[in-house]
Amino acid sequence: MAADIVIDESPDPAGDPDVHRMLVELSLDEQTHYDHPQETDAELRARLHAASTFTGENHLLIARDDAGRGIGLCWVVLFDPGTGLEAEIAELYVEPGFRGGGVARRLVAAAMQLIRRRHVTFASVWTRHDNAAAIAAYRSAGFRPTEQAVLTWLPLPEQRQPG
Q1: I want to staple 74 with a disulfide (CB 3.0 to 4.6 A). Which of 61, 68, 120, 130 is the partner?
Q2: For residue 15, is it within any domain?
């Protein structure tokens, strides 16, 4: 039977009822594996949509000292891949002389205000396991370790395909 299967790219994923149906089925099935609010079939059908393109936004939140000089930043990326608005805190940085004073927590709290105001359906942040200060700032804003396995692929020279 596998020989009869054809793989193609949908020219109009937004108008393909099979794409919509499968996205809803996938979401209904997958959400039972995680400890977060569950959506109904109707809610998923209303929210999920596939698009051949998606747009994103960059928001740079800057912490400034009394003189107005930037001492920290939080870069928030918002994007909708077709499953609802998502967010990633792409970068969080506080100048060394200002670390430990709550600047990172305030930046992440401001990021969360933006995320909530925009009705984001999923937010993530990536950091090293040994970055205790960043983890504390993210946890104070409600981020928790995920139940999902996160695998990454980086285009390192030994992984590139000949071409």
Answers
A1: 61
A2: yes
Q: Locate tokens 């990172």: which residue?
A: 104
Note whether 141 and 112 are within 8 A (CB).
Answer: yes
**Do residues 46 and 65 share a domain?**
no
- β partners of residue 76: 59, 89
Question: Which of 119, 136, 113, 146 shows the shortest CA–CA distance to 36?
Answer: 146
| 54 has pLDDT over 60 | yes
- Under 8 Å between Cβ of 57 and 77: yes
Under 8 Å between Cβ of 131 and 18: no
Burial category of 69 from C-beta neighbours within 10 Å (exposed 0-12, middle 13-18, buried 19 and up): exposed
Res 1 pLDDT > 50: no
Asked if residue 140 and residue 72 are part of one domain, the reply reads: yes
In total, how many domains does the chain have?
A: 2
Which string of b and e fits 14-26 if b means at least 16 CB within 10 Å? eeeeebbeebbee
Q: Please give the Cα distance from 57 to 142 (Å, whole number).
A: 22
* Residue 9: partners with Cβ closer than 8 Å, 6 or more residues away: none
Predicted structure pTM score: 0.73
